[in-house]
């Protein structure tokens, strides 16, 4: 049986500091007919999670928010009409609890965990059975917690519009969660992977993970043309996480009718003075480019992704430091300072 009280982390204000994260205790919610009570065992952080308390998130968030979309745990109780899960099942959350299949619509967009609704940085959470998936059989709870945002976003980028094919080329930027998952998915699919990074140490890690080519963007600011020269006709898929300061280079390396999946803005929401100006809309016409924004993916896509993770025994890349539940503020700061390599994970006890 679950404990009598539920420990939680709550964002009390959007104050440009992680001091606004506070702990409290609340009653464990009751379970409805179609609900599942989950003991959260691990939570992973995304740049989006840290940008919310820093008041830099471009979407609205609820007040007194329990943060974090990405949770993994074990089922401890099910409602009387639940058919997909039973006590003891290991699970993972969905980023959008209401995005089950097909295109993302406005109503489903309002179900984002850790943003529009309370998230997973707590000991227990009640979910609708539709908003959960069974954890991959080859992953631990800590590894499973990395999937709901970064992994499915990378999967959607590679398979959502023009599915990646063996022999094609993928370019990923940096060493964050989405980029590393995209690198792993690309190699599992038999594609060539090009990665950009800022240091020799990170370049070595990327090569160990299977990157065929690594470009240091600090040493080579025109890395888009360099990447293009590594291919026959250009890159098929670019996983774009930098924002305005990297998008022009992404288009430079892209083949005609290739896909740029715009996912993040870790380089800032606006262009840096003195940097090459971001491309204009008509620049996509001259290169016959497909540029799409992605906000994670559906449950249907996540189920397909989990099959691939199991079939290829893909192991998520986690930072060497795992934080305790009481160290949430430190985990957020660690991510924000970009001291991580791979996913930052909090173990929930």
From TrEMBL:
UniProt xrefs under Gene3D superfamilies: Medium-chain alcohol dehydrogenases, catalytic domain, NAD(P)-binding Rossmann-like Domain
Determine the domain of life of the protein's source: Eukaryota
Alphabetical list of InterPro entries matching this protein: ADH-like_C, ADH-like_N, ER, GroES-like_sf, NAD(P)-bd_dom_sf, Zinc_ADH-like
Family annotation (Pfam families): ADH_N, ADH_zinc_N
Q: Which residues form the signal peptide?
A: none
The Enoyl reductase (ER) domain covers which part of the protein?
16-346
Q: Which CDD domains match?
A: MDR7
GO molecular function list: oxidoreductase activity
Q: What is this protein called?
A: Zinc-binding oxidoreductase
Taxonomic classification, please? Eukaryota, Fungi, Dikarya, Ascomycota, Pezizomycotina
């Amino acid at each position: 049986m679950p404990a009598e009280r539920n420990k939680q982390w709550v964002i009390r204000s959007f104050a440009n500091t992680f001091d606004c994260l506070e702990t409290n205790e609340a009653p464990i919610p009751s379970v409805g007919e179609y609900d599942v009570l989950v003991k959260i065992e691990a939570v992973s952080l995304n740049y989006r999670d840290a940008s919310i308390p820093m008041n830099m998130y471009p979407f609205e968030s609820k007040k007194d928010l329990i943060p974090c979309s990405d949770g993994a745990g074990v089922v401890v109780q099910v409602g009387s009409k639940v058919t997909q899960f039973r006590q003891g099942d290991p699970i993972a959350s969905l980023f959008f609890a209401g995005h089950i299949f097909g295109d993302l619509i406005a109503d489903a967009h309002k179900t984002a965990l850790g943003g529009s609704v309370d998230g997973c940085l707590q000991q227990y959470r009640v979910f609708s059975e539709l908003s959960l998936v069974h954890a991959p059989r080859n992953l631990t709870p800590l590894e499973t917690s990395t999937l709901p945002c970064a992994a499915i976003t990378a999967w959607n980028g590679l398979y959502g519009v023009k599915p990646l094919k063996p022999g094609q080329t993928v370019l990923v930027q940096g060493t964050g969660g989405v980029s590393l998952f995209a690198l792993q998915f690309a190699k599992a699919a038999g594609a060539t992977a090009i990665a950009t990074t800022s240091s020799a140490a990170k370049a070595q890690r990327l090569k160990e993970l299977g990157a065929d080519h690594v470009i240091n963007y600090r040493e080579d600011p025109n890395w888009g043309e360099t990447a293009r020269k590594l291919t026959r006709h250009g890159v098929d898929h670019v996983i774009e996480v930098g924002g305005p300061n990297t998008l022009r280079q992404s288009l430079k390396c892209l083949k005609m009718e290739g896909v740029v999946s715009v996912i993040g803005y870790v380089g800032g929401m606006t262009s840096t003075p003195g940097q090459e100006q971001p491309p204009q809309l008509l620049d996509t016409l001259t290169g016959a480019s497909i540029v799409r924004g992605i906000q994670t993916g559906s449950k249907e896509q996540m189920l397909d992704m989990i099959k691939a993770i199991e079939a290829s025994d893909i192991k998520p890349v986690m930072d060497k430091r795992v934080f305790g539940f009481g160290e949430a503020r430190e985990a957020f700061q660690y991510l924000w300072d970009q001291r991580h390599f791979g996913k930052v994970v909090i173990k929930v006890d």
